[in-house]
Amino acid sequence: MAKNTNLAGQPVICQLLSFLPRQIVDSCVSEHLSDRYYKTMTTWKQLVFMLYGVVTKCHSLNSLCKNLLFLEDRLTYLGIDKLPAVSTLSDANINRDSTVFESIYVNLLDHYKEELRPVESSFLDKRVDTGKIMLVDSSTISLFVDVYKGAGRNPVTGKKKGGLKIHAKLPLGGSVPDLIHITEAACNDKSFLGQLEGEKGTIYVFDKGYVKYRKWKKWSDNGVYFVTRLNDNAEYQVLEGKTNHISDYADGGIISDQIIMLNPSKEPLKARLMIYKDPVSGKVLEFVSNMFDYNENTIILLYKYRWNIEILFKQLKQNFELGYFYSDSLEGIKTQVWIALIANLLFSVIHRQCKEAEQFVTIVNMAAINMCSYISLIKLVRSGRLLGLERDLKIIQFELFGLQQGGVFENSKNPP
To answer: Among 43, 62, 58, which Cα is nearest to 323's?
Structure first.
């Protein structure tokens, strides 16, 4: 009988957490004193239990704790010899400050900064340093409690769901955001832009929700670049430039490239306005930037790449539990979001180490379904398509009973 060479010395949940150096957790715990008032539910244990729930997408805290029973003694590899009571884990979510998990995420990102280095784009102007391009956006998550104020007007019934907003900054070609800010859903995106300290030579790409002329002017004075869409109600005055002939953009292309003065009646800002017709949809789009020395197609392509951050939010919501929250407290909700971000970071590292042999969602699903298995996750992902011998169960497991005898489902004379 051939041996199974895909076995690992520990179950998948421990393989996953092996990518989280324990010294990082211990350092953050010491810094924030997060274990000060806890005897049994330490920060490490809460992280392990919540990470299991977030990855396996348990829909309630009770379901999470019951599913942990299937792990049996496998958590002893992580130094955990007792499963939590629902009330104990609930109290930790309510009372423990979520900043310790934020700190773990930040330190973990710094630990893997080389492995998660953004992939360079070959489609941009060679003069553009792709390492200096940052995508900025936010995503709203609906809540069934009003701990965080929801966005939009109150409905006729007077009741409105709560909501939180995740603001993120993602390097172009990256898979993990290097800056996260969590606010209530009603918070305007402008407030996040106001707190963002622009670095000289960096290009920030964002949508129309981040209109803050004063900030844009400050960036322009300090050598910081931006690319965004122009609001429909924007006030501006054309300084120079002309419209191209219709034959140049009939099937799509640049309609005009002009120098304008934004907000001329209050705090004027010199900018560049490019009007572009999309060759696929036929829509006319207006882009505004302070990049005067670059090709207009490069600027439009930069905004097109902004969609990468939308993919990040979609990946985060689809693969990790952010639809049901295990706590209705402010700290508990933020804790679950940070642990989902930690899980996304860990799987991104695995995805890179496996040289993207499988899709991200496939790797997460493989881990989520087989948390108890001792099969090596990375080896299985790297193996690609299984060979005929690898799919033959007869040479993998012991033949305790002869197959010719038939099992309870093969032999009608041998009922269960």
So the answer is: 58
Amino acid 13 reads I
User: Contact at 8 Å (CB) between 275 and 255?
Assistant: yes
Strand residue runs (E) in 37-147:
133-143
* Residue 352 and residue 174 in contact, taking contact as beta carbons nearer than 8 Å: no
H or E segment at 353?
helix 330-353
DSSP code of residue 191: H
- Average pLDDT, stretch 240-256? 84
Please check the confidence at residue 250 and state whether its pLDDT lies above 70: yes
Structure token pair of residue 206: 């964002």
**Is residue 348 predicted with pLDDT exceeding 70?**
yes
Task: Tell me the average pLDDT of the chain.
Answer: 86
State the residue for tokens 């209109």.
211
Type of residue found at 296: E
State phi, psi for 27 to the nearest 5 degrees. -65, -45
Q: Tell me if 176 sits within 8 A of 162, measured CB to CB.
A: no
If you compute the radius of gyration of the chain from its CA atoms, what whole number of angstroms results?
A: 26
Both tokens assigned to 188: 């305007």
Share of the chain above pLDDT 70, in %: 85
Tokens coding 36: 């000060």
**At 260, is the secondary structure helix, strand, or coil?**
strand
- Which residues make beta-bridge pairs with 167? 138, 181
Q: What is the mean pLDDT of residues 350-372?
A: 91
Yes or no: say if 148 and 332 are a contact pair by the CB < 8 Å rule. Answer: no
Give tens-digit pLDDT for 131-140: 889 999 999 9
Whether the pTM exceeds 0.85: the reply is yes
Q: Which two tokens stand for residue 200?
A: 């000289």
The answer to whether residues 288 and 211 touch, using CB atoms and an 8 Å cutoff, is no
Residue 410 φ then ψ, to 5°: -100, -30
CB 177 within 8 A of CB 166: no
Look at phi and psi of residue 355 and say left if phi exceeds 0, alpha if psi is from -120 to 50, else beta.
Answer: left
How many CB atoms are closer than 10 A to CB 333?
Answer: 24
Question: How does DSSP assign 279-342, residue by residue?
Answer: TTT--EEEEEES-TTS-HHHHHHHHHTTHHHHHHHHHHHHHS--SS-S-SSHHHHHHHHHHHHH
Token pair belonging to 237:
């005055």
Q: Taking 70 as the threshold, does the pLDDT of residue 416 lie above it?
A: no
